[in-house]
Amino acid sequence: SVDISTFTRQTGHTTLDYGFVNTSATKSAVTFIDGDKGILRYRGYPIEQLAQNSSYLEVAWLLLYGELPTVDELGQFDERIRRHTLLHEDLKRFFPALPHTAHPMSVLSSAVSALSTYYENQSDPHNPEHVELNTVRMLAKLPVIAAYAHKKSVGQAFLYPDNSLSFVDNFLKLNFGVLSEVYEVNPVMSRALERLLILHEDHEQNASTSTVRLVGSTGANQFSSISAGINALYGPLHGGANEAVLEMLGRIRDSGESVQRFVERVKNKEDGVKLMGFGHRVYKNYDPRAKLVKESADEVLEALGISDPLLDLAKELEQIALEDDYFKERRLYPNVDFYTGVIYKAMGFPTRMFTVLFAIGRLPGWLAQWREAINDPQTKIGRPQQLYTGAPARDYPGLSS
Ligand code: ACO
Question: Residue 266 Cα, ligand 1 centroid: separation in angstroms?
């Protein structure tokens, strides 16, 4: 690898790299990916082991501080987060101002931006106490905001967080509990959601994380940076793909078109149609997260006693695609988004909440990467070059009549 910034300054030469396919913008010690071998590790630990054995908050600590927490550290972290789950009552009045048709991702990013207004005197990116406090605030409050975005979209009353419950159980209750009724957390659902959140916690310099780091490089606070990351995640080529996959499966089922015919349309790039949930910039082998999600999909649906034809359709699509030269030559495999939607649907989340769930999962990674950038003395304001292709210099002629 070459550090090109000095070279550029000294020679005036620059590189043109659409989509940053071959450009590292930073060094990072958080997450390792080997896309050819299908390997993903957080701070050196294989994703498979973390998904099997740890919890969302344990992994969040690992990403933030570089080592696994001790039992005491995790207990105190959990306790601190439980104490910060409440939203200011005034912020709750933000939600009714938006139409009930508002997409929960837009509600989420706007509310996170709005959240910063309550902590303007405690948001200095270079004050470690502020950074710690806002890390905890964000981890505690994002799930509550997410659940309120959900409740708003279905027209139900907001519940207060139940801080006697674990992080994930509290989130499930906020989403599916109803005022004046007892809510029993289903342990299968709870464990499955925890696993999915862990699988999403970080993924090195993807589009939303790069956005968080870029915005952070301007000196913007954590709330502004994370809000920008949520907006980047919303796009269908990134986190929005989990919603797009389910819509694609639903359209295939409803149209009566055969899976084979749909795949032909993808290969012919008819109307730009893509196989959503397939392909990845880095993985040129099976995405290790997708492997785990696929296993989970079967287990969860069986445990919840649900049979969903869309899962069968997804498997059929995968089977056909993996045997087809178009996908083989381009090394296109299912990514993390291909099977998650089927599980979220079985849990009872509406399709428009899927990317919001991704955002909750990704939050610890965004925070960890933002902190890494802030603490790296080599971080500079992100400011790509361009190759100018516009008009040459010319004189202003005045408006023509
Ligand atoms: N369906 C059909 N063809 C595809 C797909 C797909 N899902 N993905 C890539 N291709 C094709 C491209 O058309 C291109 O073909 P060509 O060489 O004939 O022009 C070739 O494979 C290479 O693809 P690129 O677009 O250059 O790959 P890139 O790395 O830029 O894009 C991306 C990666 C955006 C993920 C892409 O694979 C895609 O759009 N997938 C569908 C959306 C999706 O699932 N996104 C989620 C990604 S995971 C995440 O963000 C959490």
Answer: 11
